Amino acid sequence: MTRLALVITALTSLSRGVLGALQTCGQAQYDPAQYVCWSNQFLCPVTAGEGLSYCNGACYSKFMYTCANNILTLLEPVDTPFTLTVSNPTLSIHDKPITAGGLRLSLNGQTSSYCPSVVGDACPPGNTTSIVAGYGGASMNTLVPGGQRIYLDPSWNVAYTQAHSAYIPSGSLTTGFAAYKDGGFVNLNGNGWGWVACPPRASGPAGPAWNLIARNETNAESLNYCTPINLKVNPFPSRAAAWQYT
Ligand SMILES: *[C@@H]1O[C@H](CO)[C@@H](O)[C@H](O)[C@H]1NC(C)=O
Ligand SMILES: *[C@@H]1O[C@H](CO)[C@@H](O)[C@H](O)[C@H]1NC(C)=O
């Protein structure tokens, strides 16, 4: 790009902030906050802050698909442990970790874990929240016998079972999750409405952690104070990250 083009781009983004200026894509005009233009002819929407990519007639999310030889292809599932980070560049918590605490997964919180003293040196550090996924379900990446299963609770918050307990409230969902290599952790329940990040509410528990909630057709309206996000999968070494999360 030439120096002049850079200046023009800078001016365009400046005026866009002030005026919401439209740009052109072939014959069409579009708002760059809402669409991306591919090859000066195809418009794809921006969802969860991600300008969708284009593959031979289809717009797709890089958190789930790739375009191989012009064919839309699902990314490979991840069968090793991973951590998750928030992805939506419009949010202050972009790139912040998903954290386990209070038997819930939150955004930008503190990882909360425990290891009995008898385990001694074999205790993993327990300071990172890591997950494993497979067979449609997901669990916390822990050593505790019985494991800690991840589920959507009846309010579609993301929760995990307490160590040494298989208790899951009735009306919860334990399947419908998938994690993709170099992609995202997705919720396939409820027709792909995706995840939202809900800011801490004045009336709610204090602290910097945001709530992670799975959206669907029914709850979308009540979650309009929240922002759609993707959950980005990041590789984690093939070992347990904690004895148990609390
Ligand atoms: C977690 O603890 C280990 C061992 O004490 C340390 O090396 C690592 O940097 C810590 N990681 C984070 C994310 O704090
Ligand atoms: C959507 O989530 C709400 C909880 O927020 C739940 O009560 C409802 O059953 C879910 N709707 C669908 C269609 O699954």
Automatic annotation (TrEMBL):
It holds the Pfam family Carb_bind. GO terms for molecular function: carbohydrate binding. The keyword Signal applies. It comes from the Eukaryota. The keyword Signal applies. Residues 1-20 form the signal peptide. Residues 24-72 form the Endo-1,3(4)-beta-glucanase 1 carbohydrate binding domain. Keywords: Signal. PANTHER family: PROTEIN, PUTATIVE (AFU_ORTHOLOGUE AFUA_6G03560)-RELATED (PTHR42047). This is Carbohydrate binding-domain-containing protein. The lineage of its organism: Eukaryota, Fungi, Dikarya, Ascomycota, Pezizomycotina.
